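Hey L., structure's done. Input below.
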Amino acid sequence: MTKEIRSLENQLEDFEMVRYRMEAEGFHYCFKHYSTFMNVDDDEFHRLRLKYLGSSEDLEQYVLKKIENLTYRIENLVDEEVSKKSDDEPTTFELYLKYKDEFAGYEDVPSYDWFLHELRFNDTFREKYGKNNS
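Output:
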């Protein structure tokens, strides 16, 4: 067996090991936590691996920041709603408390965040528990 064939077989073995780990560990975990694969002698592989890790970190930070910003905006709007409400119009939190009463005696009561989510995205829920039906 020539030196070139041996080298190509070693490279093939390295990449088959990477593929196996991607499948066994999951793609993201494979590159983020399992290994840096320093035994793989391929500059393009490492360039792309690092680019992937950077992009995944950027995406994770974007999602976390977006959640933080949206939560802040919603809380501010809820605060404005509470300060503007008339005495006969219930606040969203008051609607939640009324909804929560339906779970008296149960340990697993839906959270306020869940209630807000359902009001926003579930038309049937909003019709039943929203402001127009208090």
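The chain has a mean pLDDT of 89. Residues 86-134 form one domain.

-- N.
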